């Protein structure tokens, strides 16, 4: 067991069962990265929310790597007596690039609802068991297969699509 | 007791077909509406005069900033990032420069003086943002006198910001490695009496909100968000602190030099709109006394204002937060070894507060709607004028935007000064 995992367990006052966590990294004093895979993510988050009592989700970030997608859940462990917060980056790694899929955490955080939809909107990552997996921000007429935050789309290309939509709307009116 | 289930208020069908049972009237507000200065589409389901449920649709002002940042260098992004928000621009820039400094590994080279100037800029911003907010809140509650009083007094802090940075709402003082300009002794001496004057005025504002019955009755026991509901809907910043969640990132995870200042964490447990107002009023007073402390420290603090940062940032990633006037501001930056970011994520505080605010509306009167929706501080910017000050003679000139552009082109073309 690594020192970082032990330190995190001491702060959260829980123990993880064997092989549940892929890796724990310490970013700085009182700031951790917890790495996991899509198949174990749901159970691990269940332990963090129900046993350790974490309830605050700051945001969800999707990142496109060379061969996979990563989804970062930035959660805060809050210690109310000391007015202190321990930021934890809960990282779901190894999401395949063709048909990206990962479990949704709507069951644990109300806020996960719209943050996950934002990732779906920009990266096309599908969150399983999400009750309302629809677009959040992009316009209604935006083409379904274009996920603008992917590296394959450049700034100029997106500009053309946007101007195309505007032209189409003004012609229809 | 059966636990109440929550659903996010962002799940809204465009045609309003998902209206809750029991609602007999549906009100659509926005995206363009005189009440709300920024585009958001509120859908309010009513039964008689009471709100059954309020929903929202967003995305009308999407600018693609995260994508734009990937196409620019780290240095160029320093000037793009304050444009994320019209009012809280300094705090966005503050987190950005901290992310860059951490990735470049020069965190320990930032001098105390540079950090103090950054903090002064952030605190001054908090003061003017809060003063603007409670002015508009009073306006929404039908108490226009307070709007004019608070906005009149807000000019004092705006003048201070303009004096130290050259801009009214977008100071943009920070750079990776330090700050752009110094805060010299004569400016500190000029600022101190203004701050002390403002403290007296904000104390008077607080007295009005607490003692004046016509405004207090509009805010007290309206839109109560209990601590349990707050834990579920995860509000941040003043919205959370009014409901008894005592978390301020300056205290809970200190950045810059906030742990060296003497200040109190403000939080209330009532959860109504009056509590959010008082949180902001008390915070304004705290920020003012923090500004005074920072100025005291600046008299003796020294050090290089700007440390060198190489344009190529080594590969790495860092998650940083700061307490913006509206709440928790979150940035996540990933560098790949070139001079451009691989990915940069921004989460501004208002998005996290919308769910909690719409939860407040359940069962309230429709007449209280403007006050409740205002409570999370949807922000807007209003800078359409420029004042040019001649530093040597003290001459002032106020002109509009078009005139300024005209003059600037002429000045450049014929190589002559403005005055």
Question: What's the gist of this structure?
Answer:
The complex is a heterodimer of chains A (173) and B (419). Chain A has helices spanning 3-12, 38-51, 112-123, 155-172, and strands at 23-28, 31-36, 56-64, 68-79, 84-96, 101-103, 126-128.
* Cα Rg of chain B: 22 Å
Number of helices of chain A: 4
CATH architecture of the largest domain in chain B: Orthogonal Bundle
Beta content of chain B comes to: 5-15%
Task: Report the span from N to C terminus of chain B.
Answer: 73 Å
Instruction: Tell me the number of structural domains of chain A.
Output: 2
Structure in words:
With 173 residues, chain A is of the alpha/beta class. Chain A has two domains: 3-137, NADH:ubiquinone oxidoreductase Nqo5 subunit (Beta Polymerase, domain 2, 2-Layer Sandwich); 138-173, no CATH class. Chain A contains four helices and seven strands; from the N terminus they run αββαββββαβα. In chain A, the strands form two sheets. Chain A has a five-stranded mixed β-sheet with strand order 1-2-5-4-3. In chain A, α3 links the parallel β6 and β7. Chain A is elongated, with a radius of gyration of 19 Å. The mean pLDDT of chain A is 89. With 419 residues, chain B is α+β, with helices and mostly antiparallel strands. Chain B folds into two domains: 65-374, Cytochrome-c3 Hydrogenase, chain B, CATH 1.10.645; 385-414, no CATH class. In chain B, the strands form four sheets. A three-stranded antiparallel β-sheet of chain B has the order 1-2-3. Chain B is globular and about 65 Å long. Mean pLDDT of chain B is 86; it is low at 380-385. At the A-B interface, β3, β4, β5 and α3 of A face α1, α8, α10, β6 and β7 of B.
Question: In terms of topology, how is this protein built?
Answer:
The complex is a heterodimer of chains A (173) and B (419).
Chain A: H1 3-12, E1 23-28, E2 31-36, H2 38-51, E3 56-64, E4 68-79, E5 84-96, E6 101-103, H3 112-123, E7 126-128, H4 155-172
Parallel strand pairs in A: 2-5, 6-7
Antiparallel strand pairs in A: 1-2, 3-4, 4-5
Chain B: E1 25-29, E2 41-47, E3 50-57, H1 65-70, H2 74-80, H3 89-104, H4 112-140, H5 144-165, E4 174-175, E5 178-179, H6 185-211, H7 213-219, H8 227-233, H9 238-241, H10 249-252, H11 273-300, E6 316-324, E7 327-335, E8 341-347, H12 349-361, H13 369-374, E9 385-389, E10 396-400, H14 401-414
Antiparallel strand pairs in B: 1-2, 2-3, 4-5, 6-7, 7-8, 9-10
């Amino acid at each position: 067991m690594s020192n970082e995992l032990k330190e995190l367990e001491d702060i959260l006052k829980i123990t993880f069962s064997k092989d549940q966590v892929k890796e724990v990294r310490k970013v700085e004093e009182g700031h951790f990265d917890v790495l996991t895979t899509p198949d174990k993510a749901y159970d691990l988050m269940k332990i963090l929310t129900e046993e350790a009592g974490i309830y605050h989700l700051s945001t969800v970030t999707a990142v496109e790597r060379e061969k996979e997608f990563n989804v970062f859940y930035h959660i805060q462990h809050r210690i109310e007596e000391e007015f202190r917060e321990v930021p934890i980056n809960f990282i779901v790694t190894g999401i395949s690039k063709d048909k990206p899929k990962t479990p949704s955490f709507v069951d644990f955080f109300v806020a996960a609802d719209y943050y996950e939809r934002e990732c779906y909107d920009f990266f096309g990552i599908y969150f399983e068991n999400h009750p309302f997996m629809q677009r959040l921000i992009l316009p209604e007429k935006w083409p379904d297969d274009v996920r603008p935050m992917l590296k394959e789309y450049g700034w100029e290309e997106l500009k053309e699509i946007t101007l195309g939509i505007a032209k189409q709307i003004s012609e229809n009116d | 007791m059966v636990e109440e289930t929550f659903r996010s208020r962002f799940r809204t069908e465009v045609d309003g077909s998902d209206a809750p049972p029991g609602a007999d009237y549906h009100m659509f507000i926005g995206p363009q509406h005189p009440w709300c200065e920024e585009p958001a589409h509120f859908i309010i389901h009513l039964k008689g005069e009471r709100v059954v449920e309020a929903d929202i649709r967003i995305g009308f002002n999407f600018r693609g900033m995260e994508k734009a940042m990937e196409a620019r260098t780290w240095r160029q992004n320093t000037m793009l990032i304050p444009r994320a928000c019209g009012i809280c621009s300094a705090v966005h820039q503050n987190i950005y420069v901290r992310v860059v400094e951490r990735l470049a590994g020069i965190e320990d080279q930032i001098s105390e003086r540079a950090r103090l100037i950054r903090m002064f800029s952030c605190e001054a911003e908090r003061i003017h943002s809060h003063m603007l907010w409670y002015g508009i809140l009073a306006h929404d509650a039908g108490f226009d006198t307070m709007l004019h009083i608070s906005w009149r007094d807000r000019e004092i802090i705006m003048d201070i910001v303009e004096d130290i940075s050259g801009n009214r709402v977008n100071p943009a003082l920070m750079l990776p490695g330090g700050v752009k300009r110094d805060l010299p002794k004569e400016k500190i001496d000029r600022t101190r009496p203004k701050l002390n004057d403002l403290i007296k005025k904000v104390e008077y504002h607080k007295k009005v909100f607490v003692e004046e019955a016509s405004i207090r009755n509009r805010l007290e026991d309206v839109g109560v968000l209990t601590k349990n509901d707050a834990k579920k809907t995860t509000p941040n910043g003043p919205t959370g602190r009014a409901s008894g969640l005592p978390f301020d990132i300056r205290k809970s995870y200190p950045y810059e030099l906030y742990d060296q200042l003497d200040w109190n964490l403000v939080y209330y447990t009532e959860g109504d709109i009056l509590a959010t107002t008082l949180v902001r009023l008390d915070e304004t007073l705290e920020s003012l006394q923090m500004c005074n402390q920072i100025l005291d420290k600046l008299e003796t603090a020294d050090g290089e204002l700007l440390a060198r940062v190489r344009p190529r940032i080594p590969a790495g990633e860092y998650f940083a937060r700061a307490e913006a006037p509206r709440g928790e501001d979150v940035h996540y930056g990933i560098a790949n070894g070139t001079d451009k970011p691989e990915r940069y994520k921004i989460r501004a505080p208002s998005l996290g507060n919308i769910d909690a605010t719409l939860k407040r509306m359940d069962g309230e009167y429709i007449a209280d709607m403007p006050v409740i929706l205002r409570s999370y501080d949807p922000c807007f910017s209003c800078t359409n004028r420029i004042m040019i000050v001649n530093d040597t003679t003290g001459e002032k000139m106020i002109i509009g935007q078009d005139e300024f552009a005209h003059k600037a082109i002429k000045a450049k073309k014929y190589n002559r000064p403005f005055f």
